[in-house]
Amino acid sequence: MSQDVVLSTSAIGSATTRTRLSSASKVSWLALPGVLFLTVFFVAPLCYLLALSMHGGGSMGRVDPQWSLVNYQRFLSDHYYLGILWDTGVFGALTALICAIFAFPFSYKLARMRTKWRTPLLFITVLPLLISAVIRNLGWIPILSERGMLNQIVLAAGLRNEPLQWIYNYTGALIGMVHVELPFMVLMLVAVIRKIDPALEEAAINLGATPWQVFRRVILPLSRPGLVAGTLIVFMAAISALVTPAILGGKRVMLMALYIDQQMRALLNYPVGATAAILTMAAALAAMLLAMKLGRSRT
Amino acid sequence: MASVELQDVVKHYGDASVVNRVSLSVQDGEFLTLLGPSGCGKTTCLRMVAGFVTPDSGSIRIAGQDVTRVPAYRRDTGMVFQQYALFPHLSVAQNLAFGLQLRKIRRQDIRHRVDDALERIRLPGYGHRYPDELSGGQKQRVALARALILSPRVLLLDEPLGALDQKLREELQQEIKRIQKEVGVTTIFVTHDQNEALSLSDRVVVMRHGGIVQIGSPKTLYDRPVDHYVASFIGKINFLPVRAQRDTAQGGWFVNRPGHTTQWRVLTNTEYQPGQDQLSLLALRPERIELGAGLPNQIMGRVEQVTYAGDGWLLDVRADDDLRIVVKVHNRSTPVSGENVTLSWRHEDAVLLPGEAAA
Question: How far is CA B23 from the centre of its chain?
């Protein structure tokens, strides 16, 4: 008797699964516009870019008809170009690291907050993203320039005798980049820290862990998925950023995005620009795979 | 020797007083339970011993040492949390080793102690599993082992069985009792479940509104509750409003229901000393009442309902007016509803309680 009931319920169960599956296949054509859009506007241009990079050529829009890997050869054997690639990677990594360090304590506090202030504070965190990049970056100039606010304070406090160079260099680009990307890191971290049961911290304290050890051995490992996701987002955004490094970095900072822009728009050297773009993407892809490996919850 | 002592401990959250001048001392090796409904301050008391909550005033001592201002990570207590609080990113063995590693104990010794701990909770070979691969009962046993592996001065259990189903709860109660006796560790247990409190504890502290109502052995609380609150919180009980008069000849009390002439005698009462004709409550446990006129104190009634309770029957008896009395009988033949019965009980099985919280 009871067995019959079990059998019949399992039969019902599988029947509902089947209907669900068939209805799923019925609505799958809804994904078609999206797939079509991505194919036309993302996959196809990418293929074109790849093809473009495999032709010789030069400035003023000249593209040799025959296939060759000469661009890659030149790029990968020249210290100048490799230096740009390396600098870009370091720029992305530094931005991500600084964001993580700044965002962690703030996100922790926000995630553990019980009052109604959390939502407004989160909103304020995201506010910089609502302003145009150009305006946001211009806003830094009165603060960071040679006669800017920060230097006035440094001089008045007697920390230095002459103004510091905050802007139109690597530091400036980094400050601007961290400013834009910080909200993404905070959002990722708040989401993951909120899921950590506060009782786990108490359990660790009860077993004799100091506040630092609680962070090192419980909070940090448990927020790793969010940390990895946030780092990845920030890193990707930083290595492909154009406007912020251009405005706050000045002419002294050369990163891949700036170099590609220069080749493509100023020199009209499409094959070299395409090569740089493909290499940047390959590096980003490698970083992503590495992050996914690190992001697994158990190693 | 007192192992844990709370002295005049007070805690407020905003305007709300959560713990109000609680003084308590737990003996070495004792199993003490804090019992009460949610919001009575029992968990706050436990968390103050653990060091997660700092009292506004008063002091806390562990093994004679004043720890009121000692941070939680140096208190040397072992705590088991309601939702287990096992580290999800660590295996069972790593969970058990957590505290040992912080104390920089040699790797080899750690492995031995972890193996011993797994043996003790009867989960040998489970070291490599992760918490999400364990059942609720297994998780709680690992949590218990983790709390005990550092040989703490006091074991703190915060409703550790709350998340488990009834059968598993009873199994784990026995397990906790067995391990606690084996290790001999002083234990403070927090629960709102009176059955758990009665079956596990050496002594039970009944709490209400942040204060202690009664402290005593489970038997004392059951047989000699101090008031209506304790009596009704622990087990089933009947309350009969009565007026009491001192029996000067034989000791004890004469009581009669207001408006009735039938007199009963009560031999036992707690510290409660009612004045002449003061309105009080006569408390009677259902299983201490007999059917028939075999015992000296009697009342007549009519059976309204008979409920089968597995180990006997519960009779809902309505006495001549609006008084209901629940009786538990174990006889094979029971009266049917509508039948008139006489109920009786011994002098010493009734308890006289203050009447302020009218039933």
Answer: 17
Give the residue from B126, B210, B116, B121 showing the smallest Cα distance to B160.
B121
As given in the structure block, the two tokens for residue A97 are: 């690291």
Task: For residue range A215-224, list pLDDT tens digits in order.
Answer: 999 999 999 9
Domain membership of residue B45 as a residue range: 2-229
DSSP characters over A160-227: -SS----SSSHHHHHHHHHHHHHHHHHHHHHHHHHTS-HHHHHHHHHTT--HHHHIIIIIHHHTHHHH
* DSSP H or E stretch at residue A269: none
ipTM computed for the complex: 0.85
Same domain membership, residue B158 and residue B259? no
Q: How far is CA A54 from CA A83, A189, A270, B20, in A?
A: 22, 41, 11, 81
DSSP 3-state of B109: helix
Q: Which residue of B has its CA nearest to A208?
A: B73
pTM summary value:
0.81
Whether B88 and chain A come into contact, CB under 8 Å, resolves to yes
pLDDT per position as a tens digit, B135-190:
988 999 999 999 999 999 999 999 988 878 888 888 889 889 999 998 899 999 99
Best residue in A114, A193, A206 for a mutation probing chain B (most B CBs within 10 Å):
A206
DSSP B234-301: SS--EEEEEEEEE-TTTSSEEEE-TT----EEE--B-S----TT-EEEEEE-GGG-EESS-SSEEEEE
Q: Are residues B62 and B158 in the same domain?
A: yes
Query: Is residue B201 located within the same domain as residue B258?
Result: no
Q: Is the pLDDT of residue A17 over 70?
A: no
Q: Provide the CATH number for the domain around residue B61.
A: 3.40.50.300
Q: Is pLDDT larger for residue A165 or for residue A190?
A: A190
Best residue of B53, B62, B81, B153 to probe chain A, by most A CBs closer than 10 Å: B81
Cα-Cα-Cα-Cα dihedral sign, residues B273, B275, B277, B278: negative
Residues of chain A with a CB closer than 8 angstroms to some CB in chain B: 197, 199-200, 202-210, 213, 217-218, 221-222, 297-298
In order of B63, B186, B202, the CA distances from B181 in angstroms are 19, 10, 11
In DSSP notation, B140-204 reads: HHHHHHHHHTT--SEEEEESTTTTS-HHHHHHHHHHHHHHHHHHT-EEEEEES-HHHHHHH-SEE
CA-to-CA distance for B184 and A230, rounded, in angstroms?
Answer: 49
Which of A23-55 are b and which e, b meaning 16 or more Cβ less than 10 Å from the residue's Cβ?
eeeeeeeeeeeeeeeeeeeeeeeeeebeebbbb
CA angle in degrees (0–180, nearest 5) for B268-B269-B270? 135
φ, ψ at B33 (rounded to 5°): -115, 135
Residues of chain B with pLDDT under 50: 357-359
What's chain A's Rg over C-alpha atoms?
26
Determine how β-strand B57-62 pairs with β-strand B31-35: unpaired
Same-domain pairing of B106 and B149: yes
CA distance A291 to chain B (A): 18
Q: Provide the CATH number for the domain around residue B266.
A: 2.40.50.140
